[in-house]
Amino acid sequence: MDRVPVLEEPLKKLLGPATAKVMAEHLDLHTVGDLLHHYPRRYAERGELTALSDLPLDEHVTVVAQVATARILKFNNGRGQRLEVTITDGSGQLQLVFFGRGIHKPHKDLLPGTRAMFAGKVSAFNRKLQLAHPAYELLRGDSSEAVDSWAGALIPIYPATAKLESWKIAKAVDAVLPSAKEAVDPLPRSLRDGRGLVTLPEALLKIHRPHGKGDIAEAKDRLKWDEAFVLQVALARRRYAETQLPAVARRPQPGGLLDAFDAKLPFTLTEGQEKVSKEIFDDLATEHPMHRLLQGEVGSGKTMVALRAMLAVVDAGGQAAMLAPTEVLAQQHHRSVTEMMGELAEGGMLGGTEHATKVVLLTGSMGAAGRRQALLDLATGEAGIVIGTHALIEDKVQFHDLGLVVVDEQHRFGVEQRDALRSKGKQPPHLLVMTATPIPRTVAMTVFGDLETSVLDQLPAGRSPIATHVVPAADKPHFLARAWERVREEVENGHQAYVVCPRIGDDLDDKASAKKKSAEDEAEKRPPLAVVEVAEQLAAGPLAGLKVEILHGRMAPDDKDAVMRRFAAGEVDVLVATTVIEVGVNVPNATAMVIMDADRFGVSQLHQLRGRVGRGSAPGLCLLVTEMPEASPARGRLSAVASTLDGFELSRIDLEQRREGDVLGQAQSGVRSSLRVLAVIEDEEVIAEAREEAVTLVSKDPELAHYPELRTALDALVDKEREQYLEKG
To answer: What angle do CA 107, 109, 112 make, to 5 degrees?
Structure first.
């Protein structure tokens, strides 16, 4: 029987069942290798104290600090007592509190002048940050035990939890660290030597027990390369495998549907649209499946590019399917596509022209008769284009000859859903993925690395600029009154407005949405503003006399569609909505948007929402209402949105301000979980170079026959979830 590699040994063998159980449950660490790859978050220096000034509320932290004062206070008429300890780092202070019987040991240990590590969850009391009942580990001078335990000058601080403090993790790492020398090195020696990188065993030793900052830098350089390179090899192999799959080449016929459509366009395509269309048509003409990501600013004309690609496929005898994330958006796409095509969308009907095809809509809430007809049109090939929600993926849906799948707002779809639709073709169909969320180049290379990327960065003629302003409702309430006056002025000038709220306003609302991570203001004590209440207040107050309606995700599909139709027709002055309008909703007459509690939305989401106005010839106005104080990070975020209309710049800000996992999203959680040292924004150069190296290596040896260590690392890194992501693309 083969011996289990040391790094795959279960932790309970080295640490005992109790510690291993806590590690598995709270940190998802199961093997020696898992623990060795659980790197310190940062390092505290013996001669330096940790900054206490910017601790995050509600998060579990570890700090190294010195006790300034400690006193016992009585309360409840002397029946209760608590120990209050103030710790300092020289620039800031933090209070620790211990209650009841738990005060005796800390009272004895935590004398003024004592230095220790403290771990606990940051909470607020009387508007001051504190740790209640923190765990602590004393740092006793330079005793040999302390020096051995904390590796000389630098103390590693590990990502920890309430059940597992950083110093307990450090002791567990000590127990498994000798196994690091058995680590299989995935980087080919030539690559390692060429870039002056240390070996993997050396990097693991240096990241966990550095003897100086140089050790940490060397270890991180090496470990970043591991993460970038192994991921890029996985993606390069995926792209290589795609080139080996057969697909039907789809070339539009001269004088066919596409030419007829282009001839009736009332405008010329932008240079960007022409360039991206050529890239797509070149891909469609090959005999392996296109795999392309089309990213473009809000309103850059992605739908037009996608529609022309679909028409080219219909011309070539195939069918095209467009998958939208919501019914509102599917209906909107269906409406705009049939309007753009006119009589060309009336195939088989009176009034349809010679080249016309049928464009059908398929959503979960359609009536039985309409659904039956749509399914029949798809199966017979009568319908060249279908637009729908995930209802398109169901087993009952059969295509005559599916040639192209267009996925709108890809980040909202799981890989399995995308794959299920692709499996409906006789041969793998071509795939075009669209997103209006600008993606920095590095994220595109990391998360969408199996897709070729096209970027639309020009706005079509006729689009108007959007002015964005922050409205500080708490500091200057008259600014909010002025905001409603501006909405009235827009309506009086014949235009319409959106008011966006974070929540719907019934008991079904997600309670989590009311949680705030900031102690910056009393504002976070109230729940987020809700569509239902705000609409009532506006209709009875500042917008009295205007036609105000609501739109949110829990309305019946027919009701949602009816509201959107009335708004599009100009029968509604002000639409109070949730983010259901975030993507794809196109009403050129809407010129103003007021976003309530704007600090509760992410940067990219605010940019998406703002893109709903200024879609016609009149300039757009977007007002970001917040009660957050001026110096708060939330206000900084809103000021960034107000300062630029460049979505790519904003996506960088977004990624820098938020944890990368939030941006990479659930569908890519496999990628996310593998990136521990690599930062997709800062390490752009490493990612780009790793991609180049990976492409070269895979083109010569796609099976990695000459790189068994790399193959092993790939198998270990590609967990089940990620395997699906990579295998299905």
So the answer is: 80
pTM over 0.90? The answer is no
The strand pairing partners of 218, in sequence order, are: none
Whether the CB-CB separation of 292 and 279 falls below 8 Å is answered with yes
644-698 residue pLDDT tens: 887 777 777 776 665 444 444 433 444 445 577 887 777 888 988 999 999 999 9
Burial of 501 (0-12, 13-18, 19+ CB in 10 A): buried
CATH superfamily of 466-644: P-loop containing nucleotide triphosphate hydrolases (3.40.50.300)
Instruction: Tell which CATH classification among 1.10.530.10, 3.40.50.150, 3.40.50.300, 3.30.470.10 matches the domain 257-284+300-435.
Output: 3.40.50.300
Q: In 3-state terms, what secondary structure has residue 648? A: helix
Degrees (nearest 5) of the Cα angle 168, 170, 173? 115
Summary count for the chain: helices (H), strands (E) = 27, 21
Six token digits for residue 64: 């190294």
Q: Are 314 and 355 in contact (CB under 8 A)?
A: no
Q: Are strands 319-323 and 466-472 parallel, antiparallel or unpaired?
A: unpaired
The token pair at 638 is 């809103």
- Candidates 3.40.190.120, 3.40.50.720, 2.40.50.140, 1.10.10.1320; correct CATH number of 42-157? 2.40.50.140
